[in-house]
Amino acid sequence: MGNYGQFCPVARAMELLDERWTLLVIRELLCGSRHFNELRRGVPRMSPALLSKRLRTLVQAGVIERHEGDDRVTYQLTSAGEELRGVVESLGTWGVRWMPELGDEDLDPHLLLWDIHRNLDLDAMPEGRTVLAFHLFDARQGARDWWIVVSEDGVDLCDFDPGHEPTARIEASLRELTRVWVGEVGWDEALRAGEVQLQAPAAIRRQLPAWLKLSAFASVPRPSPREPAPVGAGG
Amino acid sequence: MGNYGQFCPVARAMELLDERWTLLVIRELLCGSRHFNELRRGVPRMSPALLSKRLRTLVQAGVIERHEGDDRVTYQLTSAGEELRGVVESLGTWGVRWMPELGDEDLDPHLLLWDIHRNLDLDAMPEGRTVLAFHLFDARQGARDWWIVVSEDGVDLCDFDPGHEPTARIEASLRELTRVWVGEVGWDEALRAGEVQLQAPAAIRRQLPAWLKLSAFASVPRPSPREPAPVGAGG
DNA sequence: CAGTATCCATTTCGATACTG
DNA sequence: CAGTATCGAAATGGATACTG
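ok -> structure tokens follow
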């Protein structure tokens, strides 16, 4: 395995990149994660042993560099790694357009809140502390309530009540908030349908959608409904 | 396996596309192959059982369609499949820029001649029959001599002497002709260095490089030599 | 924090031969 | 031409627990 026995550049690239998880680790690095346990949060289903192995392979391939700082290890994309952005973008663009609807297996409240919390548009948010409380009524016990606290110190994600009065409260099903996140439905649509509810003063309710930047692929135009719908890829 | 448990569009896409060989089959379809045994020639190291399995998965995923004609089965990309061109292009572009030098394992005379023969610039070639004879002096016995016959009937690749007087004879090592094909060296450079030799009348010698269109990635600009060279990806 | 160590079930794939 | 059938070797990676 690994070698395709072809000189074709696509085959050469895939020798490195078609290993399970590899491009997701790279996606995390492109999103700005730099430390082992930070990367883990972006690929929670990946075992640490495997993440470690992939990182070594990527160092070896010249895609990332590993730096041992005084107290932390840091991973950093090289120019070669940075150039994988194009690959990741075209994959995500395709995925959002042509992969079938989200299955229950694809939903993950930790990942969703982790993504949301690192994609806030801080410039659009008010000065001082802002607290967003999320309630995902159908998520499993312990992953149902979340708080994002934005202050001068940065952005914090908590799965326990930090004790500040929320600026706004967002209530939705895990599925529906995920669909908004990936751009399958728009804010307006989800709010009108009542699938997502915002509890906040009217002024804040109007602003809030602008605070969450959504997935980088949310704005990709979808295939027109006239085209044949993709079907499931599962066996 | 298969499922990453993530709603991320990149992960969704990779669920389908990170399986070994899958994107190479798609590359073949994008290059115009439409029948089973035609596809096989583009992925010679893939077993027919596995090719068959991948084709079924791709049909199921809505990326290709299978048509049973009267005497032939035809595979055809859907719009979803056609849109994978962007993915394949960004992978090949990256591969050509950042993967290490070709290893002996990557060289394959059948594949090279198969690629060359289906990428001739017929419009640039003279009327009537043209015969190109290739001699790869270091290829293994039986894969050393090739003939491409271009006539009104189309383009044929032979591994036996078709008996026509060659219009030109190309002699090179397998490695060097492959390097020219993928754009690692230019025609001029390879000819000047004598790594590739053309035996033909001067007028034809000058034209011949224009007859072969080379890999789609041959013209991708390479990283400047100032940048750190990529190292091998092998364990 | 940044990983290792271990272990085995499962998958996956390659090789080869065969078929309507 | 367009695949199936079969089989076993290899590796892959998931789970879990542990470490300096």
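The beta strands of chain B are 64-68, 73-77, 130-136, 145-151, 154-158, 168-172, 196-199.
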